[in-house]
Model the fold of this input.
Amino acid sequence: MKLSRFVTLLALPLALLLYYSCEKSDKGDPPKNPPDNITAEVYGRVTDNDNVPVQGATVIAGTATTTTDVNGYFRIRNASLHKTNGFIKVEKEGYFQGSRTFTPNAGTTNYVFIQLLKKMVSGTFPAASGGNITVTSGGSINFPANGIVNAANNAAYTGNVSVYAYFINPTAARFREMMPGALRGINSNNQAVGLKSYGMMAVELTGTGGEKLQLANGKSATILFPIPTTLQAQAPATIPLWIFNDTTGVWKQEGSATKQGSNYSGTVSHFSFWNCDDPFPVVDFTVTIKDQNNTPLRYGEVVLKIIGDTLSVNGYTDSTGKVSGPVPVNKAMQMQVYNRCGALVHTQQIGPFAAATDLGTITIPGVVSVSLTISGSAVNCSGAAVTNGVVNVALNNNNYRSNINNGNFSIVIDRCDQSPATAKLQAIDFNATQQGPLTDLAVTSGTANAGQLSACGDQINQFITYTLGTLNVSLLPPDSVRAGRSGSMTSISGYHPNQSNYTYFRFTGNAQPGTYAIDSIYIETPANYTRWKKSGNFNITITEYGAVGGIIAGSFSGNVFDESSPANVQPIVCNFRVKRR
Done:
């Protein structure tokens, strides 16, 4: 789907776990919020600008941090977020900083989707003479002579300067995922406004030693922003310039740019993300989307296209089906609702709105995605049926998991379409801690027979497996499984995004084998997003406790209760073997 421009109402995606370094959130205790903050959960996904998942990126929400898993997913529980401008930052070496600004809904899981832009050197110039750098993706930057300093100490820099720059085209299909924050700004009168972008530029400078550089005080550079062809006729002669504030997640008006032929030219005194935007007044908007069975449309996209304009605004529904955020004031709009697979499931005209509006709940027909069932069998190193294991299925940049029951497995995967694809299957035997080779399987929809897989060949070093009531769950790479120690506390956690399984438990004690009291357990299971916590007191047995880089292994059993229905108490038996970080 291609959008000309938009304001992000509520950015999106759920996935990885909050690691032990964020002790307060992991404990399940909501942080103490500033007056304008709320507590909410954020689930999201990070890809690069080729739409490839980014693994190991650092995700920051206030004081809480986590990292993305093999599929680019992350999750932060109990994040303290500004009630109107929730802000998530993503960092990884080799990429410009990514971020998303959205209106969070308290007590729900809010979804964000971010694309990181790969950093490529557009050119170099000697600091002493300055130079004009042509940006590969569009535009140029003209640097002054003797105008560069070390950003850390403000000392004059005289060597060669490497320029990392990327022009972000506002008519690009994935503009809303690539841009930082959202198109929300604070104008020169300190008023909150929406922004209609005509061009955006990311710029970073480094020295020969990798040091970060900036423009010197009193020096300026000129940025040339190409105006996309479809926007040139409506582009104003003069337009405000906006710089992105990576603390608040909101753009701030700073100077202006003038139209010169098919470009905007603007002078800047420091570097970050710069944006040429026409501001407009906004009002708050909320709507909740559910189907005829009262089931929320979770993490679906809601696009509002302004009638008679190229401007669009968009957002993503949270775990309750609600989406909130600013929309243009007094504008009639066409609302388009898309499911998680990107299929259009509802259209209607709304507005104009002169004041804050909550449309309440809109009921749309349920949409059934394309179903694929993969079945087969698995044998161990002795050729006997695997009795305690799983099959991992990697398909379309996601990993799915099926338990092996008496040597057989079957897994149902919801696909967005019936296009031919190759699934990669791998059988794992927990009893023998063995995994077999990857096996390719051509799939479309319907059923696919994988035949007999071997769960023999390589030793597996990490896993978390448990039985909760009648539910069997296995977490192992490429899932995120982690163990760490902070003070006297050991935390172990795992997350598998496609099955919505999140597991966290901790204990206090020595860094050696032994029996210790379980401090807490937090488990989420896919059935109606049920959340389970420890019921009563019981112990954990540690059989192996290695140094950093080594293995922590053990088991525990006891009871857990359903957080939403405390009378529902179920037994749990867990075994684990996880590398210590």
